[in-house]
Amino acid sequence: MKNTQRVERLRAVLKKRKLPAALITCPVNVGYLTGFSGDSTYLVVTPKVATLVSDSRFATQLELECPGFEQIIKGDSGTTWQALADYVNGLHLPGLAIESHVMTKATFDQLSALLTVPLTDVQRAVEELRMIKDDGELAEIRQAIEINERVFLAMRSQLHGEQTERDLGHQLEQAMRNLGAEGCAFPAIVGVGTRSALPHAGISRQPVDASPLMLVDWGTRFGNYVSDMTRIITTGKVPAKYAKIYAVVLAAQLKAIREIRHGADCQVVDRAARGHIEAAGYGKFFGHGLGHGIGRQVHEAPGFSPSRQGTLAAGMVVTVEPGIYLPELGGVRIEDDVLVTKDGCEVLSTLPKDFESTFVKLL
Question: What CATH fold (topology level) applies to the domain 3-130?
Fold first, then answer.
């Protein structure tokens, strides 16, 4: 989809909400609407014009990346906010909607003092547009998933006991770049032994051979889009209880995936997995949401949790990642990236996830 088409979709939202214009300041949203890859640049969208306000550092870049958009480059004196205010004040708008969820109060106060137009709220309009992916976006997500899987398989094949969580995290990111990715979507989570029971533990200097079990949560950024997956690795005999909770988590994930389709209620999807885990007696050990949207960011709308409302639509890409975390034993999380389709869903990630596939013999 061309960036001008995305702006037209935003204009349709503004018209429906009876908002005369919008100021987009979130860098991710500015990039989505215009193709701009820099920062410190703001987009003003009215019914007739779409104007980027920036400074001289980005003048040439804006010309190259954002054809079709008006540009205002601030002069040697003053600030970009002043240049923005001068432009907006000259439009004599009846109102301007801002992205209040990303604007700090300090910035809001500064902007309010400069503007003569009343400010309202655009209420995550661009994030809502970003939920539905077009063919070009899906192609980048698929490529991010393919690279993600290749680096994981390569890491597994070279695993040895002297490596640490930190070594593996760095190895994954370097391999992503070697395969053409921009880098990691987020810092990899590698948890060996009981550290696998820390859902967002990050990485430490814990050696791989400190325990026969390990959780790896990693993602690749290709172009502007990301992947996000989690798998378990076992390198020896693990307690029977660990194998049991693995089976519970896998069954819960499969139940949830079967619920994913166009028009499905997000809370119903969450309940499919959460209810299975609760029935197995581990409900209190699954404390996070079932999943989230992915796209330009690793956490986007929609979301799966007991409290988050929403309806799935074809073109959304979501993660499904139930988990059980036992502090004295370790944690299990299994995560895949799933495309919502008109007829159901497509699981985009293809790495095996049966318990037997988790075993790796250390070199």
Answer: Creatine Amidinohydrolase; Chain A, domain 1 (3.40.350)
Q: Average the pLDDT over 306-311 and give the result.
A: 95
Domain boundaries, the chain: 3-130, 135-358
Distance separating the N- and C-terminal Cα atoms of the chain: 47
Summarize the chain as % helix, strand, coil (round to 5): 40, 20, 40
CA 262, CA 344: separation in Å to the nearest integer? 6
Average pLDDT rounded to a whole number, residues 268-295: 98
Q: Give mean pLDDT, residues 147-173.
A: 97
Instruction: Please list, in sequence order, all residues whose beta carbon lies within 8 angstroms of the beta carbon of residue 261, skipping any fewer than 6 positions away.
Output: 312, 340, 341, 343, 344, 345
Residues 6+ apart with CB under 8 A from 362: 159, 160, 161, 208, 209, 235
For range 135-144, the mean pLDDT = 98
Assigned CATH for 135-358: 3.90.230.10
Q: Is the pLDDT assigned to residue 1 strictly greater than 80?
A: no
- Predicted local distance difference test score (pLDDT) of residue 77: 81
The CA-based angle 267-271-272, given to 5 degrees, is 120
DSSP SS3 for 118: coil
φ and ψ of 73, to 5 deg: -110, 120
Across-strand partners of 229?
A: 218
Instruction: Report percent pLDDT > 70 for the chain.
Output: 100
CA dist 287 and 323 (Å) reads: 8
SS3 label, residue 50: strand
Hey, what are 320's tokens?
């499904």
Cα 296 to the chain's mean position, in Å? Answer: 6
Phi-psi region of 273 (alpha: psi -120 to 50; beta: other; left: phi over 0): alpha
